[in-house]
Design goal:
Largest sheet: none
Number of strands: 0
Shape: globular
Number of helices: 8
Structural class: mainly alpha
Distance between the termini: 15 Å
Strand content: under 5%
Helix content: 55-70%
Order of helices and strands: HHHHHHHH
Radius of gyration: 15 Å
């Protein structure tokens, strides 16, 4: 697959703004392992090979197991994820799969039961940021590193 363009070369200030927002999310205080699961799940939904490559590698470095990574796309049917992780993954799917319908109140309630109001905003911003990265990388066909 050939890349359409390099966004960092085409618009470095715009990409720096996205990097700055990403840095804010990383410093938000949310658990980094949880953030990686959120990034991976959104990237699975969006089909972003570049982000999947990056975030599965990062999750493994943090000690994430292959079993949990392999079952992430079927997290609802697996007992490997905590209630807090499940709430975050449900919220990730709800905000990633916007299709003109309102986000289900059940997804919000599940997430709100496990995250403080400030964490709700931080988690939602984390989901927004990974979706932005996914759209940039999928749209411009950013290749993931080769072996």
């Amino acid at each position: 697959m050939k890349a359409h363009l390099n966004a960092f070369q085409a618009a470095p200030q715009a990409m720096q703004a996205l990097l700055t927002l990403s840095d804010f999310v990383e410093r938000s205080g949310l658990d980094h392992a949880l953030l990686e699961l959120v990034k991976i799940r959104a990237s699975q939904i969006n089909g972003c090979a570049f982000c999947l490559h990056m975030h599965t590698r990062d999750a493994r470095k943090m000690g994430e197991t292959e079993e949990r990574l392999n079952l992430l796309s079927a997290w609802r049917e697996s007992s490997y994820y905590s209630e807090r992780e499940r709430a975050a993954l449900g919220w990730t799917e709800a905000l990633t799969l916007l299709d003109g319908k309102p986000v289900p109140d059940t997804e919000y309630a599940a997430m709100a039961a496990h995250f403080s109001p400030e964490e709700q905003v931080q988690l939602s911003l984390a989901i927004t940021v990974i979706n932005a990265w996914n759209r940039m990388n999928v749209g411009f066909r950013t290749p993931h590193p080769a072996k």
